[in-house]
């Protein structure tokens, strides 16, 4: 459920009519709803009520906007980060360092040291090599890094190939077949305190079965590690729960996910860490755009909007579907190709889409754009970076300025030997 609804013929974010935001901030612009973020955070937390000890660490990559992180920090959320940049954002939003988890397959030495320096709660080590390097860095600093070892369980998550992470040939984690041996080696290493394991098999999961399968493998691994004399106190179950992108699409609910987790982990006696991203932020945001013009096509017309693949990359990158609706529906519809202004055919949001009738100057939204939206933007075609707005009841604030193409150009230089 979200708070983007049509009231008196006009789409509102909570109590703010979207045309007001378009007038004051311009388009394209990402619009987030605080009430929706809070609702999703609460629903996910309540779904895990039966898990006695836990940390819910929002996957910052899904939406790193500082105001969004602040909303989640106020809900008691920690942060799952994958770079120093994300770590700094989480800390700047007031998230306590001990509630920060550092994931990622290519943490640099500088990043490992920065994480230690900041006193973050947990590193999820993705390889033996990384574990040894972290141990060395920690020893040099006279510190001890609290860690889990990320396991690649060799499970097909059944999602898009580019966002699957738990198959044996994916780059993430250590093969489950070698986990015991690598765990044994790193557990003896001074500088790291290896206290458990982590797993994350992919994103936008539409079925709980692969997750359950992965957790069953982790269950077996925990028993075997304990059998070998290791102390296991922390298990990170990652994120991945999918969200509906189409009206009426049925996905496993947080409650169903929570019940499965509680059932699979009831004998573990560990603190569980969760890293949800999309399920919290996805449906809490829309990308508001204006129709530049409607161009006749051989078959369907092209609705050319002022948002493009540089602002919302998911359709071009993954063939992803985003609902596209008018802000002021006229009560009639059309079949159209929805495209942006960028000079490549990949800048297509949808072909042959049945949508609200739209004309030049009309406003429309791409829904479910709160996760992996603004954060994946680029400045391709020298288009600058899109602005972001957070709505709260009847007020809103610009929470990220639009960065003009000229500001990006200002950071470039022609060397004098070229002049
Ligand atoms: N934890 C780890 C270690 C991850 O790699 C990810 C996502 C998450 C948690 C959060 O997953 P979520 O709950 O959001 O599914 N750009 C892609 C999604 C990439 C996901 C990468 N990892 C997209 O737009 O669909």
Report on this structure:
This protein is α/β, with parallel strands linked by helices. The chain folds into 2 domains: 4-32 and 282-410, Lyase, Ornithine Decarboxylase, Chain A, domain 1; 104-274, Alanine racemase (TIM Barrel). 28% of the residues lie in helices and 25% in strands. It has 12 helices and 21 strands. Strands 4, 14, 15, 16, 17, 18, 19, 20 and 21 form a 9-stranded mixed β-sheet that branches. It has an 8-stranded parallel barrel with strand order 5-6-7-8-9-11-12-13, surrounded by 5 helices. Strands 1-2-3 form a 3-stranded antiparallel β-sheet. The mean pLDDT is 97. The chain binds ligand LLP. Ligand LLP binds next to helix 10 and helix 11.
Quaternary: single chain
> Count the helices. How many?
12
CATH topology of the largest domain: TIM Barrel
Radius of gyration from the alpha-carbon trace, in angstroms? 23 Å
Q: Summarize the biggest pleated sheet.
A: 9 strands, mixed
The level-1 CATH class of the largest domain: Alpha Beta
CATH architecture of the largest domain: Alpha-Beta Barrel
- For the terminal residues, how far apart are their CA atoms? 57 Å
Low-confidence stretches: none
Give the full name of the CATH homologous superfamily of the largest domain.
Alanine racemase
Bound molecules: ligand LLP
Strand content: 25-35%
Q: Fraction of residues in helices? A: 25-40%
